[in-house]
Specification:
The complex is a heterodimer of chains A (307) and B (258). Chain A is of the alpha/beta class. Chain A has nine helices and 16 strands. Helix content of chain B is 16%, strand content 34%. Chain B is globular and about 50 Å long. Classes of the chains: A alpha/beta (307), B alpha/beta (258). The complex binds flavin-adenine dinucleotide, flavin mononucleotide (FMN) and FE2/S2 (inorganic) cluster.
Chain lengths: 307, 258
């Protein structure tokens, strides 16, 4: 069953075993979910953001639940690039799935330094996802992500450092996603991924202050899915490089919406918290849909839609 | 840890404030230790979205069942309280680090405030099964909130009520300061509201009397992946309640930041 549908997806010079990845920040460094799901079925693990120095992250509370969503204010808490290379990559490189390192920084220089260091790893890293869109840090992140000029420059500078697939992760907190996606393409990106979280706020009316340790955080989960689908549609019409869609995917039906909107691949984020088997279930569901629709390659799905 | 669908054996109210849930816990799920917790998927819809964490309150070896003692706090626990025996429920566990018990331990004082009761009952049972002399202290606001359960009464708790309607008048910390016999061989364990645990850790005591506490934090993943459950600690800046915790050595916690 299912052997006749080609599930691979090419990005830049490489190809992913299947279109279902797990989103940065929701799957740790892979090992956390080892006992709960078969990691071999995942197309790509997008790691927690890696920064030049380790980061403690924001003051708690860092999570608050909203209707069909959550707002997080993690603040890019991570182990830092050196520790990542020495302690996290050795496990990741034993996996058959693609390992895509999510890179964050607060200055252009920092992004470059992180990628330079990651390039010293001889094997195990499939590609990079550049997070220019985190709403939870004071400097950088979102600032980069909303300025097309900065995106193009940063992408071009990173392009010189690596032949590996370079994916620019975009924020939905912009007026024109097409402009930003084109800037990434112009800088030499192999793909864009979207959406990162939407800026959101919850006020605790008893305490009369933010329910999070910070004022605002990033909204994710089913609540943001229609935003993600719309922006995936727009971005995919603006560029000729692949678009990796995400935001609120809980099941096959949700994933198919993204693929029909124009995404070449998708990522599962918040849903991993609720059911760690979601990626596996969604992969099976996409395959069955392809069979039913009679397409021989998952990348042909987007041609079925009349949008 | 394992994720699996299991069956509700029993789910009933015990007193005004508590519910007790019994779940089938067969192989291949690892046997839980006191202090560890499980997460429950409350609803197949997206509200409430996240799984809810609960500490194990007991493990019945022959029948392969676990219990949880919980309070109805919001939407999720309200839905849980309405679930019926025989129904299936999606669980992940056991998670987190258990309460440590030393090889040659002789004496323990265990303190539960409100919702902290479950893990402390489980722990007291384990300590006593190892012949460790154990005093169990339970605190709540008033007599009407004392759990109505045989297991609870069998654990011979010292009951403290804030309003003095039953047992000792005052909170468990006041009781310990006034009455409990804590020497340098005593290990103290606590679970309950943060203010109670904070004053527990500030209690005057022999330097070698260790304190272990179990903390609650809002959790998204429960398995160490999201960094959402940060607790401010001396050695790491922040530690994950779901992975390095929920049980911490009292002196590890930066109480002024809690
Ligand atoms: C390791 C661990 C063990 C726990 N063990 C038990 C237990 O044995 N028995 C029990 O009754 N409860 C326990 N809790 C707390 C329990 O998870 C929450 O009461 C529950 O998630 C509330 O869900 P709700 O939808 O009913 O409430 P919500 O509507 O989500 O919230 C109601 C209120 O409870 C608070 N709250 C929600 N979730 C948590 C949480 N995870 N930790 C602390 N406060 C929370 C909210 O801030 C809010 O004020 C434990 C929590 C953790 C982290
Ligand atoms: C707890 C949490 C942490 C996240 N951390 C990162 C991160 O480090 N880097 C990043 O690019 N995106 C991060 N994200 C965003 C997700 O990768 C994803 O873009 C977003 O959550 C939308 O997808 P979802 O609705 O499926 O979760 C994080 C999201 C969550 C919920
Ligand atoms: S709840 Fe996700 S790391 Fe603890």
């Amino acid at each position: 069953m299912g052997t006749n549908v080609d599930m691979t997806v090419s990005i830049g010079s490489k190809s992913l075993p299947n279109p279902v990845g797990v989103a940065s920040g929701t799957f740790g460094y892979g090992r956390e979910y080892e006992e709960l799901t078969d990691l071999a079925n995942i197309g790509a693990i997008f790691t927690k953001a890696v920064t030049l120095k380790s980061r403690k992250g924001n003051a708690p509370p860092r999570i608050v639940e909203t209707p069909s969503g959550i707002i997080n204010s993690i603040g890019l808490a991570n182990v830092g690039v050196n520790y990542f290379l020495s302690n996290k990559l050795p496990f990741l490189k034993t996996l058959p799935c693609a390992v895509i390192v999510n890179v964050a920084g607060s200055t252009e220089e920092e992004y470059l330094q992180v990628v330079q260091k990651l390039e010293t790893a001889e094997e195990g890293i499939w590609g990079y996802e550049i997070n220019v869109s985190c709403p939870n840090v004071k400097h950088g992140g979102l600032a980069f992500g909303t300025d097309p000029l900065q995106i193009e420059q940063l992408t071009a500078a990173l392009r010189k450092l690596t032949p590996k697939p370079l994916i620019i992760k975009l924020t939905p907190n912009v007026t024109d996603i097409a402009l930003i996606a084109r800037a990434a393409e112009a800088g030499g990106a192999d793909a864009v991924s979207l959406i990162n979280t939407l800026v959101g706020m919850v006020i605790d009316t008893k305490k009369k202050r933010s329910a999070l340790g910070t004022l605002t955080g990033g909204l994710s989960g089913p609540a943001v899915r229609p935003v993600g689908v719309a922006l995936t549609y727009k971005a995919s019409r603006a560029v000729s490089i692949p678009v990796i869609g995400m935001g609120g995917i809980m099941n096959t039906e949700d994933a198919l919406q993204y693929l029909l909107a124009g995404a070449s691949a998708i990522q599962i984020g918040t849903a991993n918290f609720i059911d760690p088997q979601t990626p596996e279930k969604v992969l099976g569901g996409i395959r069955r849909y392809c069979e039913k629709q009679g397409v021989s390659s998952v990348t042909d799905l987007c041609w079925l839609a009349t949008l | 840890m394992k994720q699996f669908l299991t069956q509700i054996i029993n789910n009933r109210r015990i007193g005004a404030d508590f519910f007790e849930l019994w779940l089938r816990w067969d192989a291949p799920a690892p046997v839980p230790e006191p202090g560890q917790f499980l997460t429950i998927r409350i609803s197949d819809d997206n509200v409430p979205l996240l799984r809810r964490p609960f500490a194990f309150a007991g493990y019945a070896e022959p029948s392969g069942a676990v219990s949880v003692i919980y309070q109805v706090r919001g939407r999720g626990t309200e839905i849980l309280a309405a679930r019926q025996p025989g129904e299936n429920i999606d669980v992940i566990g056991p998670l987190g680090r258990p309460f440590p018990i030393r090889e040659n331990q002789k004496k323990a004082v265990v303190i539960a405030g409100g919702v902290g009761l479950g893990p402390i009952l489980f722990l007291a049972d384990r300590l006593r099964s190892r012949d460790i002399s154990t005093t169990l202290i339970f605190g709540c606001r008033s007599k009407s909130l004392i759990p109505d359960s045989v297991d609870f009464m069998n654990a011979k708790p010292v009951i403290c009520t804030d309003d003095g309607t039953h047992g000792f008048k005052g909170n468990p910390i006041k009781y310990i300061a006034a009455k409990a016999d804590i020497d340098n061989k005593t290990t103290i364990y606590g679970c309950g509201p943060v203010p109670m645990l904070r004053s527990l850790c500030k209690l005057n005591r022999p330097a070698s009397a260790q304190i272990w506490i179990s903390l609650e934090a809002l959790m998204a993943c429960g398995v160490g992946a999201c960094m959402g459950c940060a607790v401010p600690t001396v050695s790491s800046g922040y530690s994950r309640a779901c992975k390095e915790g929920p049980v911490f050595n009292g002196k590890e916690i930066l109480w002024e930041q809690m």
